[in-house]
Amino acid sequence: MAAETAAVTLTKIGSTDPAIAGNVPISGVPALDLPAGHPQAGAAKVPAKKRATVTKAARQRSKAQRAVAVAKAQIGDPYRWGATGPGSFDCSGLVVYAWRKAGVKLPRTTYSQRRAVKKKVSWRNLRPGDLIFTSGGGHVGIYVGKGRMVHSPHSGARVRIDKLNTYRKRTFVGAVRPGL
Fold first, then answer.
1. Mind telling me the catalytic residues?
2. GO molecular-function annotation terms (predicted)?
3. What range defines the domain where residue 53 resides?
4. Per-residue CA distances from 80 to 33, 88, 92, 125, 152 (Å)
Protein backbone atom coordinates (compact mmCIF):
# COMPACT_ATOMS: atom_id res chain seq x y z
CA MET A 1 0.00 0.00 0.00
CA ALA A 2 1.38 3.43 -0.91
CA ALA A 3 2.43 5.73 1.93
CA GLU A 4 0.01 8.40 0.69
CA THR A 5 -2.99 6.12 1.15
CA ALA A 6 -1.86 4.08 4.15
CA ALA A 7 -3.22 5.24 7.48
CA VAL A 8 -3.21 4.21 11.11
CA THR A 9 -6.30 4.55 13.25
CA LEU A 10 -5.41 6.37 16.48
CA THR A 11 -7.79 4.29 18.53
CA LYS A 12 -5.61 1.31 17.65
CA ILE A 13 -2.49 2.96 19.06
CA GLY A 14 -3.84 4.03 22.40
CA SER A 15 -6.02 7.11 22.00
CA THR A 16 -9.61 6.75 23.03
CA ASP A 17 -10.29 10.47 23.05
CA PRO A 18 -12.90 11.00 20.29
CA ALA A 19 -11.47 14.49 19.62
CA ILE A 20 -8.31 12.93 18.16
CA ALA A 21 -9.47 9.46 17.08
CA GLY A 22 -9.36 9.01 13.33
CA ASN A 23 -6.93 8.31 10.53
CA VAL A 24 -3.36 9.56 10.57
CA PRO A 25 -1.19 9.45 7.44
CA ILE A 26 1.83 7.23 8.07
CA SER A 27 4.05 9.78 6.36
CA GLY A 28 3.39 12.48 8.93
CA VAL A 29 1.37 14.02 11.73
CA PRO A 30 -2.06 15.33 10.75
CA ALA A 31 -3.31 18.81 11.43
CA LEU A 32 -5.96 18.23 14.08
CA ASP A 33 -8.52 20.68 15.38
CA LEU A 34 -8.43 19.98 19.09
CA PRO A 35 -10.43 21.82 21.74
CA ALA A 36 -8.50 24.75 23.21
CA GLY A 37 -8.08 23.14 26.62
CA HIS A 38 -7.04 19.72 25.32
CA PRO A 39 -3.58 18.68 26.65
CA GLN A 40 -2.39 17.77 23.12
CA ALA A 41 -3.55 21.04 21.50
CA GLY A 42 -0.62 22.63 19.65
CA ALA A 43 1.78 19.76 20.42
CA ALA A 44 2.32 18.73 16.80
CA LYS A 45 2.50 22.18 15.19
CA VAL A 46 5.42 22.95 12.90
CA PRO A 47 6.80 26.47 13.28
CA ALA A 48 5.57 28.78 10.50
CA LYS A 49 9.12 29.64 9.37
CA LYS A 50 9.99 25.95 8.92
CA ARG A 51 6.70 25.34 7.01
CA ALA A 52 7.49 28.27 4.71
CA THR A 53 11.03 26.99 4.06
CA VAL A 54 9.79 23.49 3.30
CA THR A 55 7.09 24.85 1.02
CA LYS A 56 9.54 27.14 -0.80
CA ALA A 57 11.98 24.25 -1.36
CA ALA A 58 9.17 21.99 -2.58
CA ARG A 59 7.99 24.67 -5.03
CA GLN A 60 11.55 25.10 -6.36
CA ARG A 61 11.95 21.33 -6.85
CA SER A 62 8.61 21.19 -8.65
CA LYS A 63 9.63 24.05 -10.96
CA ALA A 64 13.02 22.45 -11.56
CA GLN A 65 11.40 19.12 -12.46
CA ARG A 66 9.12 20.94 -14.92
CA ALA A 67 12.04 22.84 -16.48
CA VAL A 68 14.00 19.59 -16.91
CA ALA A 69 10.98 17.86 -18.50
CA VAL A 70 10.42 20.77 -20.90
CA ALA A 71 14.10 20.87 -21.89
CA LYS A 72 14.18 17.10 -22.45
CA ALA A 73 11.10 17.38 -24.66
CA GLN A 74 13.18 19.58 -27.00
CA ILE A 75 15.79 16.85 -27.61
CA GLY A 76 16.45 16.65 -31.33
CA ASP A 77 15.60 20.29 -32.06
CA PRO A 78 18.39 22.03 -34.00
CA TYR A 79 20.80 24.60 -32.61
CA ARG A 80 20.29 28.07 -34.03
CA TRP A 81 22.16 31.06 -32.68
CA GLY A 82 19.80 33.50 -30.96
CA ALA A 83 16.82 31.13 -31.05
CA THR A 84 14.55 30.71 -28.04
CA GLY A 85 12.23 28.06 -29.48
CA PRO A 86 10.03 26.41 -30.02
CA GLY A 87 11.64 24.33 -32.73
CA SER A 88 15.22 25.59 -32.45
CA PHE A 89 17.43 26.93 -29.69
CA ASP A 90 20.83 28.21 -28.76
CA CYS A 91 22.12 27.20 -25.32
CA SER A 92 20.71 30.10 -23.31
CA GLY A 93 17.53 30.11 -25.39
CA LEU A 94 16.80 26.53 -24.31
CA VAL A 95 17.29 27.54 -20.66
CA VAL A 96 15.00 30.58 -21.03
CA TYR A 97 12.33 28.49 -22.75
CA ALA A 98 12.38 25.58 -20.29
CA TRP A 99 12.36 27.72 -17.16
CA ARG A 100 9.70 30.09 -18.57
CA LYS A 101 7.44 27.05 -19.07
CA ALA A 102 8.12 26.23 -15.40
CA GLY A 103 7.01 29.73 -14.39
CA VAL A 104 10.41 31.38 -13.90
CA LYS A 105 11.60 34.29 -16.02
CA LEU A 106 15.35 34.34 -16.74
CA PRO A 107 17.49 36.80 -18.72
CA ARG A 108 18.33 35.92 -22.31
CA THR A 109 22.14 35.47 -22.28
CA THR A 110 24.37 33.05 -20.38
CA TYR A 111 26.28 35.84 -18.66
CA SER A 112 23.08 37.58 -17.56
CA GLN A 113 21.57 34.29 -16.36
CA ARG A 114 24.58 33.55 -14.19
CA ARG A 115 24.55 37.05 -12.66
CA ALA A 116 20.76 37.26 -12.18
CA VAL A 117 20.25 34.02 -10.23
CA LYS A 118 21.40 34.62 -6.67
CA LYS A 119 21.64 31.00 -5.43
CA LYS A 120 25.11 29.76 -6.40
CA VAL A 121 25.71 26.00 -6.37
CA SER A 122 28.93 23.99 -6.20
CA TRP A 123 29.76 21.09 -8.53
CA ARG A 124 29.18 18.65 -5.64
CA ASN A 125 25.73 20.05 -4.82
CA LEU A 126 24.17 20.02 -8.28
CA ARG A 127 20.48 19.13 -8.42
CA PRO A 128 18.20 18.61 -11.43
CA GLY A 129 17.22 21.98 -12.85
CA ASP A 130 20.44 23.77 -11.88
CA LEU A 131 22.09 25.80 -14.62
CA ILE A 132 25.65 24.74 -15.40
CA PHE A 133 28.01 27.28 -16.95
CA THR A 134 31.10 26.12 -18.83
CA SER A 135 33.56 27.38 -21.42
CA GLY A 136 34.38 30.63 -19.66
CA GLY A 137 30.70 31.20 -18.91
CA GLY A 138 29.76 31.31 -22.59
CA HIS A 139 27.82 28.04 -22.52
CA VAL A 140 24.94 26.89 -20.31
CA GLY A 141 23.01 23.67 -19.86
CA ILE A 142 20.45 22.30 -17.43
CA TYR A 143 21.56 19.59 -15.03
CA VAL A 144 19.24 16.56 -15.28
CA GLY A 145 20.88 14.34 -12.64
CA LYS A 146 23.25 11.37 -12.70
CA GLY A 147 26.13 13.46 -14.02
CA ARG A 148 24.30 14.61 -17.17
CA MET A 149 22.98 17.84 -18.63
CA VAL A 150 20.58 18.77 -21.42
CA HIS A 151 21.80 21.54 -23.69
CA SER A 152 21.93 22.94 -27.19
CA PRO A 153 25.66 22.61 -27.75
CA HIS A 154 26.72 24.39 -30.95
CA SER A 155 25.97 25.17 -34.58
CA GLY A 156 25.24 22.02 -36.56
CA ALA A 157 24.18 20.09 -33.45
CA ARG A 158 20.83 19.35 -31.87
CA VAL A 159 19.49 19.60 -28.33
CA ARG A 160 20.79 16.56 -26.48
CA ILE A 161 21.80 15.10 -23.14
CA ASP A 162 25.54 14.75 -22.53
CA LYS A 163 27.58 13.43 -19.64
CA LEU A 164 29.45 16.01 -17.64
CA ASN A 165 32.76 14.53 -18.68
CA THR A 166 36.23 15.67 -17.79
CA TYR A 167 36.13 18.48 -20.37
CA ARG A 168 32.94 19.99 -18.95
CA LYS A 169 34.24 19.66 -15.39
CA ARG A 170 37.54 21.26 -16.40
CA THR A 171 35.75 24.20 -18.04
CA PHE A 172 33.09 24.53 -15.29
CA VAL A 173 32.83 28.12 -14.13
CA GLY A 174 29.78 27.86 -11.89
CA ALA A 175 26.21 26.77 -11.38
CA VAL A 176 23.08 28.46 -10.11
CA ARG A 177 19.68 27.29 -8.88
CA PRO A 178 16.77 29.24 -10.42
CA GLY A 179 13.27 29.35 -9.02
CA LEU A 180 14.01 30.23 -5.40
1. 91, 139, 151
2. cysteine-type peptidase activity
3. 48-176
4. 58, 6, 11, 31, 9
